């Protein structure tokens, strides 16, 4: 790995996905801005990911191997600790960056020093090849909820389309205790103190792959964890949402086993409602 201090640190966790990894790595190495390091975090994969990286003769790649599988948040945090760049970017191991992603986002952060995080839209690539435009949500500093949806304002904002100032991240890290919504939670905490700038253009191709299964039970547990974690602030700032979300989670937790049992008896997969289908873009079970 090069010894010069890179401008950007790109953090890419992976777990047992050697078939997809080269595509994601290649899209990072093809950036029009070459001043970066690519930190690949092997989150305890059963097979060595080294062969998947071997074709790339590029000293900007740094492979960090975790001794055991620790999960996506822990893998990303390990990447943050290893990062040396002034800016941080996050890639998933089966997605594709457009070549100009870093260059265009760096331009925003350089021109607007008051902005802590810049983020773009994405193209969602379905398994049948269909391409769908995915609009990232509007983020306002200090706001908890999106007034249009009445839900967390950082809901549906992934990590792949973002570029973050290291100084803005500070001591914040992904919460490794959360079973869901780790992206939402980190963005929520950062947006309380820093401005976000939205680039309304797709700079990432987000692929629906087999690793994106929706675990409804874990999702509900994650929603409950978010309420517990942010309870004092929600009680003071958004009491109506606190009550509404708590009731929704409790009702769904009580009904879910019954619904699953009935659909299992019919020999079919339980359907997902519109809200559940919309959640997949923020839940990526790559590492762990």
Description of the structure:
The protein has two domains: 200 residues, Alpha-Beta Complex (Spore Coat Polysaccharide Biosynthesis Protein SpsA, Chain A), CATH 3.90.550; 56 residues, no CATH class. Helix content is 36%, strand content 21%. It has ten helices and eleven strands. Strands 1, 2, 3, 4, 5, 6, 7, 10 and 11 form a nine-stranded mixed beta sheet that branches. α2 links the parallel β2 and β3. α7 runs antiparallel to α9 and α8 packs across α9. The relative contact order is 0.16.
State the secondary-structure class. alpha/beta
Molecular shape = globular
User: What percentage of residues falls in helices of 4 or more residues?
Assistant: 25-40%
Contiguous helical run count = 10
Estimate the strand proportion. 15-25%
Provide a brief overview of the structure.
By secondary structure, the protein is an alpha/beta fold. Helices cover 36% and strands 21% of the residues. The protein has helices at 21-29, 50-53, 72-82, 101-111, 166-169, 182-191, 216-229, 231-237, 239-265, 274-279, and strands at 8-14, 36-42, 61-65, 87-90, 96-97, 115-125, 131-134, 145-146, 151-152, 162-165, 195-207.
Which labels suit this protein?
disordered C terminus; 36% helix; two-stranded antiparallel ribbon; 288 residues; globular; 21% strand; Spore Coat Polysaccharide Biosynthesis Protein SpsA, Chain A; alpha/beta; 9-stranded mixed beta sheet; 2 domains
